[in-house]
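Quick one:
INPUT:
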């Protein structure tokens, strides 16, 4: 069992339920668009384009999907509107498999990963960053991995307190220096402690917003350099947490953070309760960064490893 596949067997019902609003929104609109139509014509494709854009798939990605469907319709000469949902599902899955999301849910054997494995978590305040870290810590620990958390978002007292609370709740060690302290020093101490106690995973929380991109870049760069004094190859992963319910705002945040630092994985939270689930497709396609986790509910295990086939199935099945 790999270090990252320990919750990929989440019940499909949770995923279905979490994406229900997005699915209903897409298919409600699609049903109205094809009423009285027999074949997939230009008008149906125009309607589908509007539906995908309004579901926060994004203009660039929507155009790609429509072009693929157009090519299929032209090739097949006659395509019934009844086949549209199947074709849509197949083309979106194909698009996701071409982005670097492919292989994310593949098993990593623990011996192939550096130990301790260091994840630096970035993202603006309010996206569910600290909650995501808490849920990850719980899931790692549940599988028997020793976890250390570093409370390096020292600009907000609430962030430090919240991470400490998660540490108590989950039963993992949290290294903190309180508020208005040097985030790099917290990261340094968290790595030192992690190495000392033989931790498997160290997760470092970082500040959600520094006034300018230059400040953010400098701060994250400094945290990385200081961590490398303890572990030369740290961090092994830089995870950006995005709030899926904000739709195109999440895309804007991804653009800002990918300019400020190297991001190697994405977690898209709060997909339950929103009709903007399509944003996962757009983000995955535009940034070519693996979407590793999606949040589809409040429970500890509702942070799921992103599985593109299951995601597309839940989002587009009738």
């Amino acid at each position: 069992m790999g270090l990252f596949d320990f919750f990929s067997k989440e019940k499909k019902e949770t995923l279905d339920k979490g994406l229900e609003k997005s699915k209903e929104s897409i298919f409600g609109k699609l049903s109205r668009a094809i009423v009285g139509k027999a074949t997939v014509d230009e008008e149906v494709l125009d309607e589908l384009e509007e539906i995908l854009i309004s579901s926060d798939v994004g203009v660039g990605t929507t155009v790609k999907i429509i072009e693929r469907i157009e090519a299929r319709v032209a090739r097949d000469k006659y395509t019934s509107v009844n086949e549209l949902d199947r074709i849509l599902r197949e083309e979106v899955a194909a698009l996701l498999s071409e982005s670097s999301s492919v292989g994310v849910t593949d098993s990593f054997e623990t011996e192939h990963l550096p130990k301790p494995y260091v994840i630096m978590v970035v993202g603006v305040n309010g996206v569910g960053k600290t909650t995501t870290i808490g849920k990850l810590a719980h899931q790692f620990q549940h599988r028997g991995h020793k976890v250390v958390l570093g409370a390096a978002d020292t600009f907000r007292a609430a962030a430090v307190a919240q991470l400490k609370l998660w540490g108590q709740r989950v039963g993992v060690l949290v290294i903190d220096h309180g508020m208005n302290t040097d985030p790099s020093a917290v990261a340094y101490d968290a790595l030192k402690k992690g190495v000392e106690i033989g931790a498997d995973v160290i997760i470092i929380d970082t500040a959600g917003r520094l006034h300018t991109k230059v400040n953010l870049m400098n701060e994250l760069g400094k945290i990385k350099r200081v961590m490398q004094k303890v572990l030369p190859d740290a961090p092994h992963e830089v995870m950006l947490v995005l709030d899926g319910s904000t739709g195109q705002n999440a895309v804007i945040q991804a653009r800002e953070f990918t300019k400020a630092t190297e991001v190697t994985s994405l977690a898209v939270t709060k997909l339950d309760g929103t009709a903007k689930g399509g944003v996962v497709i757009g983000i995955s396609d535009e940034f070519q960064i693996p979407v590793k986790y999606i949040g589809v509910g409040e429970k500890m295990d509702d942070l799921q490893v992103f599985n593109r086939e299951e995601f597309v199935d839940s989002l587009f099945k009738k």
